[in-house]
Design a protein that fits this description.
It is built from 11 helices and 9 strands. It is α/β, with parallel strands linked by helices and 271 residues long. The strands form 2 sheets. The chain has a 6-stranded mixed sheet, with helices on both faces. A 3-stranded antiparallel sheet has the order 2-1-4, covered by helices on one side. Helix 9 packs across helix 11.
Length: 271
């Protein structure tokens, strides 16, 4: 379903020292540094798998998701999603994926949410019958009935995130990329989103890749975890293997995955 082989991605970032003099110098001579976001990243994800893709800030998680969704092109290596190269077959590719970026919106800011859904229906060429059925299901499970007619800019962060999840699923994608999908959600909404994701996987065999710092999301949703740090895959296995890799009996038996991750980050020196 999803295969990445030896993928590398780098960015050129402008840098300068503090001070007015340095600002003036930068107009004539700008210095850059190369940031290696991904370094020889390889993994395979099968159809219907639910995978937690985790790591500290700046580890390369979002860059990976952007390559898989066709937004970015890697510097080297190969990547296929359901038999397609994401950045080369974008039109066909986006028909079969859903993407939620916690810090980005796919909803139009100044119009009611339901109008954004109608526009997405046309963009993805969803039939009226399928759209109405899916909208009814999403509205009930994500508790959207009271906010569908509200402009996106007037929603709280938690309300908007529930609408973002719904928007990504209106066209019934085979693959769902979730980048911090529960950011800003209260406890009740988090549970609703988690239950809905599991329901989608169970009933439609939807493949789910979840990136988040909320380890409760990982524990509730993911059957497998891939740990990335400094642009490299460091671990690929079950939650129990994650605990074991952290080392020590306490880490293995702890129910608090945040403590396990903190120990593992320190052990691997990836903070």
């Amino acid at each position: 379903m999803i295969t990445m082989e030896h993928v590398c991605k780098s960015y050129k970032v402008a840098k300068r020292k503090a001070g007015i003099g340095e600002v003036c110098k930068s107009f004539f001579r700008r210095e850059h540094e190369v940031v290696h976001a991904l370094q020889d990243v390889s993994f395979t994800i099968g159809e219907g798998e639910m995978v937690g893709y985790i790591g500290p800030n700046g580890a390369g998680k979002s860059s990976t998701i952007k390559i898989l969704s066709g937004i970015l092109t890697p510097d080297s290596g190969s990547c296929t999603v359901d038999g397609r190269i994401p950045w080369k077959n974008r039109t066909e590719h986006v028909k079969n994926i859903g993407v939620v970026f916690g810090q980005r919106s796919q909803l139009w800011w100044d119009i009611p949410v339901i109008d954004s859904f109608e526009l997405l229906k046309e963009i993805y060429s969803v039939s009226k019958e399928n759209y109405n059925r899916k909208l009814e299901e999403l509205t009930e499970l994500l508790q959207l009935s009271e906010i569908l007619k509200t402009p996106t800019r007037q929603l709280s962060l938690g309300q908007r995130m529930r609408c973002e999840v719904a928007a990504s699923l209106l066209h019934e994608p085979k693959i769902l990329f979730l980048d911090e999908p529960t950011i800003g959600l209260d406890a009740v909404s988090k549970l609703a989103v988690r239950d809905f994701i599991k329901k989608m996987n169970r009933e439609h065999n939807t493949t789910v890749i979840l990136t988040t710092h909320d380890m409760q999301d990982i524990e509730a949703i993911a059957e497998r975890v891939i740990l990335i740090g400094k642009g490299q895959i460091l671990l690929d296995g079950s939650l129990q293997e994650l605990r074991t890799a952290a080392g020590g009996q306490d880490a293995q038996e702890s129910l608090n995955l945040d403590h396990v991750m903190a120990a593992l980050y320190k052990k691997l020196d990836i903070m």
